[in-house]
Amino acid sequence: MEVSGEDPVYVERFKTAFHKALSEQQANINNGLLKIASALDPHFKDLPRGGREEVWTNLEALLPQSPQKSQQRGGGT
User: Fold this and answer.
1) In degrees rounded to 5, what are phi and psi of residue 73?
2) What is the Cα–Cα distance from 18 to 45, expressed in whole angstroms?
3) 3, 16 in Cβ contact below 8 A?
4) Domain boundaries, the chain
């Protein structure tokens, strides 16, 4: 996707716009949420050892602090 001197003008414009859009998307990725999603997905059990503790700590911080509330919701029906 590198612009070369042999590219027509429209291809150069496309490559430049594509590279800019891709760079913006990569800058906005929330890697923490991607790691949590991977940890919860049974297909991706092999997280790197260095990141496991951080991922589970972040996940616990997102969960409700009192599990009784979630049990009360399901138990009343």
Assistant:
1) -65, -45
2) 33
3) yes
4) 30-63
Instruction: Tell me which amino acid residue 38 is.
Output: S
Report d(CA 29, CA 49) in Å as an integer.
Answer: 22
The alpha helices in 9-66, defined as continuous H runs, are 9-27, 31-40, 49-62
> Nearest to residue 44, comparing CAs of 60, 30, 55?
55
Tokens read off for 8? 């027509």
In this prediction the pTM is 0.41
Helix (H, G, I), strand (E, B) or coil at 6: coil
Q: What's the pLDDT tens digit per position in 5-53?
A: 898 999 999 999 999 998 888 877 777 777 777 777 766 666 666 667 7
Count how many Cα atoms sit within 13 Å of the Cα of residue 21 in the half-sphere of its side chain.
Answer: 7
Q: Using alpha carbons, select from 1, 70, 25 the residue that is nearest to residue 34.
A: 25
